[in-house]
């Protein structure tokens, strides 16, 4: 998953009231507020109305402090030392809307920001910052009926252990014991795990809001670890899908169908994933077309018509990415699929790259298309 590079900038806060600071030719508004992902009671990091982020780290004995933004934490923003031993700095430019990972480099060592909550990404727990989005209402926490995200442990003979998954059941699941539901198996990307779609992606809130608005029929979402993180970034060719395919098809799906009130039929089962999870989705759906009927690749590649051997088994192919990725590839692939007779839909997230705002928006667009009669 591609990190985002931000040039270094040096800026001090000159007032707690509204004022304007200058950096180069850009006027930065001093209307900074704490990020919504801060630890309780912590004032930093902060975000202003222009989507700049400001960081403050207490490290009186340090010689250098830099905040590295993006998955993997490359590039970053240099902080400047104040007389009280704190270090402060502001990003050189506005950040993309949505969620971002970051870490703090102090004298060459990598640390998390004690002011921010942590999220699993880049094969470690990273600090997180939320840049308010103009369309954030669709994943906001609202006064609507909420579903349940439940941790399950399912037996896995192939890995000789019990494995973990998170299952979203929609509002009304427990109150209506005779109702059965379709299922979406939703995969995370490289460096992440089964917590990503709920924590970073807010998949449960997206679903709750869509259901409350009457825009979708309720369905279950299952999120499990894709066994991806032993692969080094850039080493995708070394990834073997077989162990995860066995866990998913032979162990997890039977367990879910036995434990939850699913509609255990191919036409009511979907698989999707972001980034490397999209690669997993493509590979498994091509290998086992009798298992899933709805396919979704979110910044995770494309299908060609020749990839799908039996068109009659596929009800939907959904392809998406950010406008800062490679949208032409997604659009062209969708056109080719449509011309070949597939129900194919593309979505491009405007102004975002390989990041969770792209995938939040993609899920929001995907969900109403799934399991339509």
UniProtKB/TrEMBL annotation:
Gene3D superfamilies: alpha/beta hydrolase, Immunoglobulins. Pfam families: Esterase. The keyword Signal applies. It comes from Haliscomenobacter hydrossis (strain ATCC 27775 / DSM 1100 / LMG 10767 / O). The lineage of its organism: Bacteria, Pseudomonadati, Bacteroidota, Saprospiria, Saprospirales. It comes from the Bacteria. CDD domains: E_set_Esterase_N. Residues 1-20 form the signal peptide. Keywords: Signal. InterPro entries: AB_hydrolase_fold (IPR029058), Esterase-like (IPR000801), Ig-like_fold (IPR013783), Mycobacterial_A85_antigen (IPR050583). Transmembrane segments: none annotated. This is Esterase. One of its GO terms (molecular function) is acyltransferase activity, transferring groups other than amino-acyl groups. The keyword Membrane does not apply.
């Amino acid at each position: 998953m591609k990190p985002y590079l931000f040039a270094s900038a040096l800026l001090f806060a000159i007032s707690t009231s509204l004022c304007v600071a200058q950096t180069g030719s850009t006027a930065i508004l001093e209307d900074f507020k704490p990020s919504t992902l801060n630890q309780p009671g912590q004032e930093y990091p902060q975000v202003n109305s222009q989507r700049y982020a400001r960081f403050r780290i207490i490290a009186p004995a340090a010689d250098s402090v830099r905040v590295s933004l993006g998955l993997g934490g490359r590039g970053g923003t240099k902080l400047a030392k104040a007389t009280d031993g704190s270090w402060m700095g502001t990003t050189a430019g506005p950040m993309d809307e949505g969620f971002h990972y970051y870490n703090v480099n102090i004298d060459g060592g990598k640390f998390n920001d004690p002011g921010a909550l942590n999220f699993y990404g880049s094969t470690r727990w990273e600090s997180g910052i939320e840049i308010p989005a103009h369309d954030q209402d669709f994943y906001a926490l609202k006064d609507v009926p909420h579903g349940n995200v439940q941790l399950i442990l399912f037996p896995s003979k192939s890995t000789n252990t019990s494995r973990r998954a998170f299952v979203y059941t929609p509002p009304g699941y427990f109150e209506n014991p005779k109702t059965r539901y379709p299922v979406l198996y939703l995969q995370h990307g490289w460096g992440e795990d089964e917590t990503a779609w709920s924590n970073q992606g807010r998949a449960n809130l997206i679903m709750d809001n869509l259901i409350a608005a009457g825009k979708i029929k309720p369905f279950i979402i299952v999120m499990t670890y894709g066994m991806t993180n032993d692969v080094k970034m850039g080493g995708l060719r070394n990834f073997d899908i077989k162990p995860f395919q066995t866990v998913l098809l032979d162990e997890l799906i039977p367990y879910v169908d036995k434990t939850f009130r699913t509609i255990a039929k191919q036409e009511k089962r979907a698989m999707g994933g972001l980034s490397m999870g999209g690669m997993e989705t493509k590979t498994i759906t091509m290998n086992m077309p009798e298992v899933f009927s709805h396919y979704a690749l979110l910044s995770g590649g494309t299908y060609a018509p020749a990839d799908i051997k039996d068109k009659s088994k596929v009800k939907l192919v959904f392809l998406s990415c950010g406008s800062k990725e490679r949208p032409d590839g997604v659009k062209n692939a969708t056109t080719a699929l449509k011309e070949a007779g597939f129900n194919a839909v593309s979505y491009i997230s405007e102004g975002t790259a390989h990041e969770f705002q792209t995938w939040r928006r993609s899920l929001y667009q995907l969900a109403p298309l799934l399991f339509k009669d």
